[in-house]
Design brief:
The protein has about 450 residues and is α/β, with parallel strands linked by helices. It contains 14 helices and 14 strands. It has a seven-stranded mixed sheet, with helices on both faces. Strands 2-1-3-4 form a four-stranded parallel sheet, sandwiched between helices. A three-stranded antiparallel sheet has the order 12-14-13. The termini are far apart. The relative contact order is 0.09. The N terminus is likely disordered.
């Protein structure tokens, strides 16, 4: 075969994986190693071998030294592995050189997380976001490394939403990326309209954030009975869900379940999911869900805060929710912690058993209570337009016929929303004053 017509293809997909985790410059903690194994399992890999080692700095050609590369080659052959997963960020050249040496697919940490997101995406927007992140990550790896990308064949790092075949031509790749970005801009415009509508109605929005597998979806289901998938695995749910929640105090809020975070989350994913994560920026309150039983919970909390800062949500008020209390040794009692001024700051609970949920609802009622006011008003038969406005902007608690032929209405409404109405309706202000303000 003529050298000019020789085509270089990457090795085919596979699920039998060897994990490569090295101490480069500093030691990797045990929980970081275990988390990477969980990521591999979440992607569907069967772990058949592991290799570690110590090195002061990455090798420019193979990332690892020639001795470790030979050891890894022997391990791949002995285990008949067809995939090597590196818990590191590999340069495109290093990835290609390793694949030529090992004769199997090589995937770094970012590529593995992208593959998990590709499996989890269900909504149209989620699929577009994942494909965009994958293309940006793979763009430098396509040159002379792929003749095609047949996604429907599957395999870790290969599957995903979008086109069946992706040609390596940079112009076509750039065109596809541009198309996806334009589609996501249109979707973001629709999301922005929804956020403006919620802001106009002054309904508080609470966003659940936290490390992956901290129990956000379980807590979300406990609060709203939404039936969102909950499983003891990383990134069990990806697409955000928003539901109404009526608090025991009578207040109405919207609660959003967002995608979980993880350490060293690929920048491509953060950028692609910026539109979805925008919900956290516009939220009235962030419920930072923490796995109380995780020995590395402080690191996980720092990772979450780092991503929140990156997407511009650092200034949004927080309420920490320490979940999985039932898994903590010498299980402490569920409780609500407050700061020096008496404001709720942290709730300890178990979303799985329901213990401590009442404390969370009390905290939510207190935190959001200042955003709404409670009123009772008797409406005349001629007040149909006002009654319709109340139904559009307030939470109606009771509405029954009055002896006068009108209605007796009890409702909660955002203080700012009511104040805007009263500024242009002095008669209503007088009527509320006469009815007796709570």
């Amino acid at each position: 075969m003529n050298a000019t017509t020789l085509v270089t293809e990457r090795p085919q997909q596979g699920e039998r994986a060897v994990l490569a985790q090295f101490d480069i410059g500093s030691a990797m903690t045990a929980d970081e190693r275990e988390e990477f194994a969980l990521l591999a399992t979440a992607a569907g890999a069967e772990i058949v071998g592991r290799l570690g080692g110590t090195r002061p700095a990455p090798d420019s050609r193979l990332f690892i030294g020639s001795g470790k590369a030979a050891e890894l080659q022997a391990l791949v052959a002995a285990t008949e592995a067809d995939l090597v997963l590196f818990n590191h960020a590999l340069l495109p050249g290093q990835e290609r050189n390793l694949e030529r040496l090992l004769q199997c697919r090589v995937l770094d940490r970012a590529g593995l997380i992208l593959d998990i997101f590709a499996q989890r995406a269900r909504s149209f927007e989620g699929k577009l976001q994942v494909e965009l992140a994958q293309l940006k990550h793979l763009s430098t790896r396509l040159v002379r490394g792929w003749t095609h990308l047949e996604r429907q064949k599957g395999g870790i790092g290969l599957r995903g939403p979008g086109e069946t075949q992706l040609e390596t031509d940079r112009r076509l790749l750039a065109k596809r990326v541009d198309t996806l970005e334009q589609r996501l801009l249109r979707i973001e415009s629709q999301r922005a309209q929804g956020r403006r509508a919620r802001a106009k109605a002054e309904v508080p929005v609470l966003a659940l954030v936290g490390y992956t597998n901290a129990g956000k979806s379980t807590l979300f289901n406990q609060l709203t009975a939404a039936g969102v998938l909950q499983a003891d695995q990383l990134f069990a749910t990806l697409d955000p869900t928003v539901r109404r929640l009526t608090l025991p105090s009578g207040g109405l809020v919207l609660i959003a379940d967002t995608v979980g975070f993880v350490s060293r989350l690929p920048h491509e994913l953060v950028a692609a999911f910026r539109a979805t994560l925008e919900e956290t920026r516009s939220a009235s309150l962030l419920l930072h869900v923490v796995d109380a039983a995780a020995p590395q919970r402080e690191r996980q909390m720092d990772d979450v805060e780092r991503v929140l800062a990156e997407i511009g949500s650092a200034e949004v008020p927080r309420l920490e929710v320490f979940n999985k209390l039932d898994l903590v040794a010498d299980t402490p009692l569920p409780r609500l912690e407050r700061d020096a001024s008496g404001r709720p700051t942290r709730v300890w609970l178990s979303a799985q058993t329901g213990a401590g949920m009442d404390a969370l609802l009390i905290a939510l009622g207190e935190v959001t209570g200042g955003m709404q006011v409670h009123h009772r008003l008797e409406l005349a038969v001629t007040d149909g337009q006002l009654r319709a406005w109340l139904y559009a902007h307030a939470q109606i608690l009771h509405d029954h016929a009055a002896d006068s032929g009108g209605w007796e209405v009890e409702f909660n409404i955002a203080a700012t929303q009511l104040e805007r109405r009263l500024a242009n309706d002095p008669v209503l202000r007088q009527r509320l004053a006469g009815a007796g303000l709570p």
